[in-house]
């Protein structure tokens, strides 16, 4: 990820590092490359799970309503567990300066579960569901520790591009992994593989990709914050971590801008994530798109999202992080309004390409804002709250979409998500990033 240069534009962050920062030296290109590579690694799960895995689960392992419910409840339960565990595990990782260890545990165990999805025979459906839930949970938990390294590797003059480059690498890696998996399925007859075996092979490949490209981050990255409770037994450290989280919540008023941002992020991210998770349902119900057509669109969006994430990172350099976020959310609002009028597949493709330009950018600039307003010594803990904010209402948007679609149709359902984006936009507009940065530097828990 290219690092952006400091500048003197009004509204930009100061180039000086925060007081008490745990960064005694500048991050090396090797460290930055290995950090970025984890986004490349885990995105194989992101793309293959929502395409080939969901098909395998619903069509071959648990056909009918059982597969649909297993997928929905599995995703929901893993999100809920991740939301509850992320702040506590993040606080524990900070207290013992163990983000690298926790990243290794969560990422590699998730990759192992993902690979086992293809090794376990379909005749053991509930073991497959259990592995799927565990892989999804580990995937979500790993981001608290991964994101926690961001403020340690980049100062305020580098956060935008570093965060954006991570997302860009993720879109490229996820798209490439999905393309290779689809190619294997297409070549299955020539390789004398039956379709089920080809799908299972793709799931093993998904886990191996995730694990293999995680290893550089696990080997190279090092926690830069000194441990506060390194000598405590793990159970006492865990109890202390719970106490730290409770103390953070009691003193959250010291971080009023961060709290306000997390609330806005919770709301607008719910709308965005629901758009992404329900887009295939909209395409099928409103436009009768086939699975093959959707697969091509997903691949196109993945690769187009790479320049989009980088472009928004540069825009944040030029305009400032908050204006870039406000612009992205405005585009999301316009997309949802336009979606209400879409009646042809070509129009849906156009919307998909526009989505690709702001999808990664919205997430990357949100992560950069979070990094700026995070206390340096508690990065994993506070990014645990970031994860909590992104998952706390994870079932609300899909329920709203499904119910509105049931009664009013898919076009009304997609328009209903506009309320999430507008409400989140209104709250995020009140965030003063400079003030939030000052609060992170001056407040001590």
List its salient traits:
445 residues; mainly alpha; Growth Hormone, Chain: A
Please provide a written account of the structure.
- The chain has 445 residues and is mainly α.
- The chain has a single domain, classed as Growth Hormone, Chain: A (Up-down Bundle), CATH 1.20.1250.20.
- It has helices spanning 29-61, 65-95, 99-119, 125-148, 150-153, 159-187, 195-220, 234-250, 256-287, 291-319, 321-339, 345-372, 379-391, 396-408, 410-416, 418-428, 433-442.
- Helix 3 (99-119) runs antiparallel to helix 4 and helix 9 runs antiparallel to helix 12.
- The longest helix has 33 residues, at 29-61.
- It is globular.
- The model is unreliable at 1-24 (pLDDT under 50).
Summarize the entry for a quick read.
This protein has 17 helices and no strands. The protein is mainly alpha-helical.
Q: What is the mean pLDDT?
A: 79
Strand percent estimate:
under 5%
Tell me the CATH architecture.
Up-down Bundle
The CATH class turns out to be Mainly Alpha
Q: State the helical fraction.
A: over 70%
Taking Cα atoms only, what radius of gyration do you get, to the nearest Å? 21 Å
Residue stretches low in confidence (pLDDT < 50, at least 5 long) are 1-24
């Amino acid at each position: 990820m290219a690092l952006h240069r400091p500048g003197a534009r009004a509204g930009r962050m100061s180039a000086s590092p925060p007081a008490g920062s745990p960064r005694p030296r500048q991050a090396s290109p090797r460290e930055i490359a290995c950090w970025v590579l984890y986004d490349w690694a885990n995105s194989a799960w992101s793309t293959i799970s929502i395409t080939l895995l969901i098909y395998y689960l619903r069509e071959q392992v648990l056909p009918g309503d059982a597969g649909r419910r297993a997928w929905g409840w599995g995703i929901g339960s893993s999100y809920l567990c991740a939301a509850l565990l992320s702040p506590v595990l993040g606080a524990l990782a900070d207290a013992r300066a163990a983000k690298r260890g926790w990243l290794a545990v969560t990422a590699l165990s998730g990759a192992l579960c993902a690979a086992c999805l293809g090794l376990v025979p379909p005749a053991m459906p509930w073991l497959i569901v259990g592995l799927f839930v565990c892989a999804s949970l580990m995937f979500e938990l790993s981001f608290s520790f991964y994101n926690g390294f961001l403020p340690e590797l980049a100062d305020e003059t580098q956060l935008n591009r570093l965060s954006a480059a991570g997302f860009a690498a993720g879109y490229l890696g996820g798209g490439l992994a999905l393309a290779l998996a689809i190619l294997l399925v297409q070549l299955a007859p020539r390789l004398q593989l039956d379709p089920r075996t080809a799908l299972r092979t793709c799931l093993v490949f998904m886990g191996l990709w995730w694990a293999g490209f995680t290893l550089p981050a696990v080997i190279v990255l090092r926690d830069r914050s000194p441990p506060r409770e390194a000598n405590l037994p793990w159970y006492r450290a865990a109890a202390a971590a719970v106490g730290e989280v409770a103390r953070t919540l009691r003193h959250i008023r010291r971080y009023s801008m961060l709290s306000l941002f997390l609330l806005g992020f919770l709301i607008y991210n719910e709308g965005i994530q629901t758009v992404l998770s329900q887009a295939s349902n909209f395409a099928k119900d409103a436009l009768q798109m086939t699975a093959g057509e959707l697969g091509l669109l997903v691949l196109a969006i993945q690769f187009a999202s790479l320049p989009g994430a980088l472009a928004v990172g540069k825009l944040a350099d030029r305009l400032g992080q908050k204006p870039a976020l406000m612009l992205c959310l405005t585009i999301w609002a316009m997309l949802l309004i336009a979606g209400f009028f879409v009646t042809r597949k070509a129009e849906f493709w156009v919307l998909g390409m526009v989505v690709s330009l702001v999808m990664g950018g919205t997430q990357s600039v949100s992560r950069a804002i979070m990094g700026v307003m995070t206390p340096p010594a508690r990065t994993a803990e506070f990014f645990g709250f970031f994860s909590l904010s992104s998952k706390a209402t994870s079932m609300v948007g899909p329920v709203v979409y499904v119910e509105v679609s049931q009664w009013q149709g898919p076009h009304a359902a997609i328009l209903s998500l506009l309320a999430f984006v507008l409400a989140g936009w209104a709250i995020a507009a009140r965030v003063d990033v400079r003030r939030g940065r000052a609060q992170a530097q001056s407040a001590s828990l």
